[in-house]
Write the structure tokens for this entry.
Amino acid sequence: MAIGWINPNDYSFDSFLFLERFQIRLMMNSGGWFKDKPEWQRNMGIALNANPVIKEYMKKRCPECANTIDEISANAPAPADKAEIRSAEVCVLASVEDFVIYTTPWIITEKCDFIYGWDKQRLFDLVELTDKTVLDVGAGTGRLAFAAAEKAAWVYASEPVGTLREFMRDKIANEGIKNIRILDGFVTDLPFPDNTFDVVMSGHVVGDDYGSEVAELTRVCKPDGWLIDCPGDEKHDSRLDKRAVENGWEAIHYIGSFGKDVYCYRKRVKK
Ligand SMILES: C[S@@+](CC[C@H](N)C(=O)[O-])C[C@H]1O[C@@H](n2cnc3c(N)ncnc32)[C@H](O)[C@@H]1O
């Protein structure tokens, strides 16, 4: 399934030199967004054999995938020509277009509908942020964090991708923002003590490991604080997340800027 954020032809396979360990692991284990895994492995093998520096980088960066990488490489056919190599590279780049666009964070706002179509008033309508201590989990380029910082006392933005952390840090420096701090961190393993934040928010992050993720968000939130899931407006309809509602989250629906359904969620933390 293509997300449509990038044209993979615009990117060099060298983009993979920016991949984080967890991204290499996810990609090697799943084949990215690609449906036909043998076909993806064939293309990945051709691309890796044509780019030995990247192959070595990926093995060293993610040692738990080294054997898989070697197997995929050994099983790949010899490409007929340079065009077949480039076609294999483009197939693999397209299979992880979210990881690829994170290597060029400065174009994300322009390319991603959930950012350029979104109005920060949607966040302000969901939760009171004035003078609060707020965490944005999986902050990306800081859509939620920079909005929250207009009202909150402090905003902490945790993000596991280094290029995105640097993008946010540069923006903070360039704009002279004093109340945002950027950290590494996974939604299932946040680098904060229990009961730290008045508001713990995220957007387009929670879902893969729902129970563990919500437990960790709850852990770092103060009693009577708020958990917020605030996705941006997209060009396709969002569906109501029944699992969230069953788990006590309030769903708030609106018609987004592209005329499609958008659902946000909030939950008061009781401990
Ligand atoms: C689609 S982006 C959304 C970014 C931002 N929350 C927003 O709505 O603008 C998803 C973000 O989640 C981050 N991410 C991916 N896996 C994660 C994990 N296990 N824990 C925390 N963040 C994660 C990605 O690096 C990326 O920044």
Remarks:
- The chain is about 40% helix and 15% strand.
- Residues 41 and 72 are 6 Å apart (CA to CA).
- The mean pLDDT is 96.
